[in-house]
Amino acid sequence: MAEDDSSQEKTEEATPRRLEKAREEGDVPRSRELSTFAVLMAGSVGLWVFGDRITESVINVMKDNLSVERAALYDTNQMAIHLASAAHEVVWALVPLMGLLAVAAIIGPLGLGGWNFAGKALMPKGSRINPISGLKRMFSMRSLVELVKGILKVSLVGGLAVLIIDWLEPEIMFLPMESMESALAHSVSIILWSAIALSASTLIIAVIDVPYQLYEHAKKLKMSMQDIKDEFKETEGKPEVKRKVRQLQMEMAQRRMMGDVPDADVIITNPTHYSVALKYDPGRASAPIMLAKGADQVAFKIREIGQEYDIPILEAPPLARSIYYNTEIGDEIPEGLYIAVAQVLAYVFQLDQYMAGRGPKPQNPKDFPIPDDLQHE
């Protein structure tokens, strides 16, 4: 029982298959703090780059709308023209900044987890609207961590904002005494550097949050030994299924092999155990090639096919064993057996001549030179 309990403890790191499956379901590590930092920094950089253009546009809008002739105030057409002109000026001033923010909002999350489009994540799940599941999420450890992060974030950013306002208070109080153009430019400068400082403060939270999210994601995907065993069975297949597949593969290979036997030039046998079918085509190979081999019932089937197609069958037990154990189907025979097989092929040629009435009956060869390292008992 203790062994069963230990096998259910999730102590093992997630396997590559488990990580791949989680990614397919949209379960990748994400850090909202990293995304927030990316958007805020992009906004700050945008203000720094496009601040002059935005300031100039605001000044132009204020000039056009605060210096209106008296007659134009009573002309609705003129008011519509002023409104359209102001909207056009503001939109074209803010488009670059908005575009930069949009890019940051898309790229920011990619800093952790990368691109991942998972259709399964879009599918409706009952657990998302289940009140009990919702309560469990509200009072979970993750929710507590998010609450602590929120409090720290507000405290950090709020505290820094108070320090910035206190530091810039003299400049802020002096703004009403400046000209309109100077005050606007000065205000933009104050907003810019304040935004940069506040954005930089969120980096501290992101640096803490990213390792935590990686840790939580790895912890959530941990597996027990039983999970790994089940995954292995699912991936590799059950043993009985694998045995059946191997059996079918062997049967298919055997059928293909038997289909090549009629092309053989000679079949060499050990009458009770082994049979090998050889073919020699000087135009395609430098040595005879084994077309088929088998033991016991397979050997008997090879001899049976040979008899059906009138293929010469030669009993040579040592040579048959040697070829059987040292040659794979489709390969050339070993160099050490060239002389012995040449004697067999010469016998087959002489036998063909005899059957055609063009020569004496050849003697069945008995002794074959087989090197010691190729002999098999």
TrEMBL record:
Keywords from UniProt, A to Z, are: Bacterial flagellum biogenesis, Bacterial flagellum protein export, Cell membrane, Cell projection, Cilium, Flagellum, Membrane, Protein transport, Transmembrane, Transmembrane helix, Transport
Compartments, as annotated in UniProt: Cell membrane
The residue ranges crossing the membrane are 90-118, 147-168, 188-215
What is the role of the protein in this entry?
Required for formation of the rod structure in the basal body of the flagellar apparatus. Together with FliI and FliH, may constitute the export apparatus of flagellin.
Cellular component terms per the entry's GO annotation: plasma membrane
Gene Ontology terms: biological process:
bacterial-type flagellum assembly; protein secretion
Membrane topology, as annotated, equals: Multi-pass membrane protein
Per the record, the major location class is membrane
Species whose genome carries this gene: Litoribrevibacter albus
Q: Which NCBIfam families match?
A: flhB (TIGR00328)
- Biased composition of type Basic and acidic residues is found at 7-27
> What PANTHER family does UniProt report for this protein, alphabetically?
FLAGELLAR BIOSYNTHETIC PROTEIN FLHB (PTHR30531)
The record's family statement is: Belongs to the type III secretion exporter family.
* Protein known as: Flagellar biosynthetic protein FlhB
Region Disordered, residue ranges: 1-27
